[in-house]
Amino acid sequence: MNWSNITLKKYLQIQDILSVEDDYTLFNLIDVIYDVDSQSLPLSEVKKYDISFMGNQIPKAKLKDTYTLNGTTYKSNLDLTKVTAAQFIDYQNYVKEQPLCYEKLLSVFFIPKGCEKYNTGYDISKVQQDVLELPIDVVHTISFFFSNQLHLFLLLFPFYLIQQVEKMEMPTEKKQMLIKSIKEMDSLNLESFHTFLNIAK
User: Fold this and answer.
1) Which range among 45-59, 89-103, 120-134, 161-175 has the greatest average pLDDT?
2) Which strands form 110-112's sheet, in the order they lie side by side?
3) What are the residue boundaries of the structural domains of the chain, listed by start?
4) Could you report the per-residue pLDDT of 152-189, keeping only the tens digit for each?
5) Strand, coil or helix: what is 76?
6) Among 155, 182, 187, which residue's Cα sits nearest to residue 166?
7) Which is the most buried residue in 54, 137, 171, 188, by most CB within 10 A?
8) pTM of the prediction?
9) Region of residue 88 (phi > 0: left; psi between -120 and 50: alpha; otherwise: beta)
10) Running DSSP on this structure, what letter comes out for residue 121?
């Protein structure tokens, strides 16, 4: 057993178990990880269920263009430059929910094969249930993949805006004022994104 065998669903269950530590924590972890009823087993058998991998960091996984989850093949749209306004708006709304619902966040980036538009022609609630079956090492890698893309985007976006303003026809004074505003613009608030990254910790 290792982290690549642990789905997002099981990972969230593990987090719940670890949030309330008691005499049954070890047994509850074994039950979730191995789908057994460890408390009804002899201790000699319980020892066979190894959970030592939990002491290791979640490794990075090689990301794929498609994932088959519960019999449905999904295209994974992991390029932030190709995210639509609808996807971005849903992401912003989902990230405000408390408690945070990771399956909703991830469903923004997974579209069933055969469907062209986000949340059109398919059941988004099914996607949210299916992404719970993603291995946690994939979820972990996706979160850092987004982090790297977002960092690069934040570095390049002001230059892109300045370039666009310089092409516009307007009085020089107004153009200079706009460029100055862009240069002084604060970076996007990354608080919501760091919340998403918490799942990788």
Assistant:
1) 120-134
2) 66-69, 72-76, 110-112
3) 3-55, 66-133, 140-200
4) 555 656 666 677 777 778 888 888 887 777 676 654 44
5) strand
6) 182
7) 137
8) 0.72
9) alpha
10) S
